[in-house]
Inverse folding.
C-alpha cells in the first residue's frame, strides 16, 4: 500500500513561500518552476489511476492535523487486515 498525498501545485507553492519566509533553507527541488511540478504531479496521478488497489489518496489541502488523522486511519485499517 502506498499513501499519495495529493496537493495542487498552487497550494504547494503557497506553503513553500510561507516556509521560505520563516527562514528555512531551500533544497534543489524548491527551486524548480511550476511546469516541473505539474508534470511530476500528472505523472503520479497517472500511476495512481492505473494502480488503484495499491494507492490510498489523502487530500493534503487540509490542515496538518486532518492529514495526519486521515493517514493514521488508513494505516490502522490496513494493519488490522
Amino acid at each position: 500500500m502506498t499513501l499519495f498525498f495529493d496537493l495542487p501545485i498552487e497550494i504547494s507553492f503557497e506553503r513553500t513561500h510561507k516556509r521560505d519566509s520563516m527562514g528555512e533553507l531551500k533544497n534543489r527541488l524548491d527551486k524548480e518552476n511550476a511546469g516541473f511540478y505539474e508534470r511530476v504531479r500528472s505523472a503520479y496521478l497517472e500511476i495512481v489511476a492505473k494502480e488503484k488497489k495499491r494507492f490510498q489518496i489523502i487530500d493534503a489541502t487540509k490542515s496538518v492535523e486532518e492529514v495526519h488523522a486521515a493517514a493514521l486511519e488508513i494505516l490502522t485499517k490496513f494493519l488490522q487486515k
Remarks:
- The domain at 2-79 is CATH 3.40.50.300 (Rossmann fold).
- The chain has a mean pLDDT of 90.
